């Protein structure tokens, strides 16, 4: 059983029926108080104390009071020295709060009754004289916590909103101003909207708020530094609402300096200390941290700070050093004293004990000398052993255990548990307490007061020590949060699970009498399905509630957040799901660019893993009706869509809300996303790409037009994707860049729109803005890997300039290839036009068209290929290099419609690798090339190679140079890594990796290397230091990472700096457009050198036939059987070179990209322009013959395939003929498969040279 003890002032009976021999004004030592009152058979649940009165709550929900009734704060007119029932409360009460001179009670239904002093409308009533017990007029939700100051009231709702009313003379209402005019109507504290709140507590004229993450916010009076914000004078600049002084007012008051903070401020000095609990005295405050430390600040004249003598006040939180070594678990502040409960964790059985410091003139310290104490001292009571306790505690009880304490103005209470006791109570009294808040743990309830009185409550069978550091989010004294027990209770109450749930509930709550009020309120078994769902609904409508959900030591438990949301929305009927989703979207869609605290941003983390963001890529399933009945869903569950909302409804709201954030919260969110597990990060990216793909592919009508328009939503999704793409580059565990691809955009490539975008980019007419929701002005968008567009004032909404081409990372490599070739065609046409204008003038060019020789004609001999090419390119300007390239070999009869050009690139690249030039080094293990640090060639040679690579790209060719990915990283301004070295030089890469992986500290002895590397200069080995004096600096365990970094820098940068810069200059002389920077290094690598992995069955699938040939023709079947099954891999590649001019495949596979690119030209140019191009023999028209389009009188055969096979009406004596320019094979009608095999192999052995057929 439990016993209540009390000590302190009992001048007006605030200690209740104390068991003393005679009437006294104070009790200096803990003394037993009789409980229950006559006629009450239930045990005590909670006590709460004001300055001079005390409230008590029993297990049936009835409230009792004793003490001063000067302002009718007792709620009755009977004896003040006995705990009498408060009249006028018509409901069962679950929580009580006593302020200095007024009182409050929260009922089971969530309504609030108030009574007592109303001089400043602190009861929420307009009539100052109305101080009877009455219901608070509050229509802003359910109040879960309420705290009473001297003349003001502060309340916390279930939705984590703070409301205040009463006096605002010191800014204690937190409204941003001070006013002598009191406020009777509850006012929302706008500065704290969206903030997760764990606890609220009031002092006389100041308030303290604690968040679940340990942040502390304060506002109100700061005359003694009780807000902990530092220098008191620095907080005096406030806005004061002027009021005309009355004639009766003391004139000196208007001159008195008022130090107040009317707007909530963060206490930065304890931001990282993990504050879990706060207590307030009249003009001082105290904080309890998660590791059991106590910090105090404010007025210290009476020793209530515990820092020793000499400190009148402390302006910032300061740790009470005398309590170090003990773990504080409970903290209370009286009017001018502080009481804590500590445990010594070093003891095998730590016994909790109360420690007190501060003013002792009324006996509130439990010390017989009634003097103030500046340092913590023990309160001697029955919780100590008999030897250490006074004789009046010598009872037959065995090892009483302290379970909780409470304190008021000048009186205190302590509750102990004794095994085998009858139900009685001891109380020790303190005068004038102010309750800060009620706090519940398990079946125990305690309340904090401004000046606390102390109480503990236990059940007859079990009495654990209350630990204020632990937060129970499911209890009704806390805000509504998304928690597993609540979800379980809701799901178990659904119709299909009702039977088992009701059986369990009835068995668990059966008893002989009415349920204990503590059990009924705080035990989840007594929650109904409807009440659990209501609490979930409130949580989903509040940013602060969701940000407080599923918290662990490291932050939010993302696994639980994802799993529980999935379970909830799978089980919930559609109507219930809509009730949860609608307030969620409305909450995050409210215009807001910032939050009061960064922990509010956890709501975005909660949503980032939510199944509500799951979005289908195509609208291939039926949307359920809005009947609300659970039905058969699709194979993949999309909760928001199944609830009747349009696809991407929640995702769009989420993306827009993130885009509206300011720089600081965005940077914090970026850091959190950077630490996401890859599966969560990948899923978020996939949902965003699915939504964009759906928007570009679906034909469904928009339904949710009132919440967002789809263009705006798509823009927001792409902006968030761009941010995640940037974050991914910095993540330790990156996801592949291909996760960001939207392949559907390739099939729906808008070449006309892309051409327009390119024109605008080149003419600097395009203004690219980043998305900022509905908050003007928009921030400037920085183009991917390129210089930003000069800022230009936006004339229209930024969505009007929105185009998907601003987000190149969503395009796959095939689409980028289309974009690159489109840009190349435009550049070539512009270069041809400019050349023609320079030769014959712009007027004649407009009348007659460009001259036929507008392409770049290169004539070379096979014997002097390098010198001819180098000399010719040296004579061309950058603008000339952008014209279409044609090649003619000296002495050969051939018209270059593409085939000769392919042959040229093959031969020139083969010649470049000639060891006589020594330009590149070949690594045998990887068969890759890198710049030779010992080459003797001039930079002009490397510039030519770079220009040839650029010309190959711009003229739709691939080259046979096996460069590593590191080269293309350097071209795109990325630093090569150790993985790149492993690709180029596997042996060196593995050696460096083994060095990094070695965990021993004897690196110097094991590896025996210095900061140097060996370079072979034609047989002479030279030692090159990697850092200054590197030859004498050994590699150790401490500097091995630096060694690897410097080694990579030497191999990829220092050793080839001059020649690489020449190569880069030549490359960008040709490829100077925007598209080339859109590529990833690996993509650009494949774009330049192609792929040697060829799917021959896919090649057959994309082959077209003319004449009498078709796929099942006997000759065609024999042809494919010979090629695929009888030819070697090298012979197959020779065939591909024989037919197409190259033995490698484009990166986009065997399908012909040229068809769609030239279709762009058909759409882009009008018929007259095309006819002119045909008549003048423009090179770009040659590809049009594969398309089958009619322009004017010109008809081209249909195609669009990789290769075409046609008969040539010849016999067995003829060889196959390849039209390399058009990828057409003339295949004679051979009489047998054997002859076909012989002739085909004979033809492909000679793959060089051209002639006219």
From TrEMBL:
GO terms for molecular function: ubiquitin-protein transferase activity. The active site is at residue 1221. The keyword Lipoprotein does not apply. Residues 236-264 are annotated as: Disordered. Coiled coil: none annotated. SMART domains: HECTc (SM00119). RCC repeats lie at residues 2-60, 61-109, 110-159, 160-213, 214-291, 292-344. Residues 877-1253 form the HECT domain. Residues 250-261 have a biased composition (Low complexity). Keywords: Repeat, Transferase, Ubl conjugation pathway. InterPro entries: HECT_dom, Hect_E3_ubiquitin_ligase, RCC1-like_dom, RCC1/BLIP-II, Reg_chr_condens, Ub-ligase/GTPase-reg. This is HECT domain-containing protein. It comes from Hymenolepis diminuta.
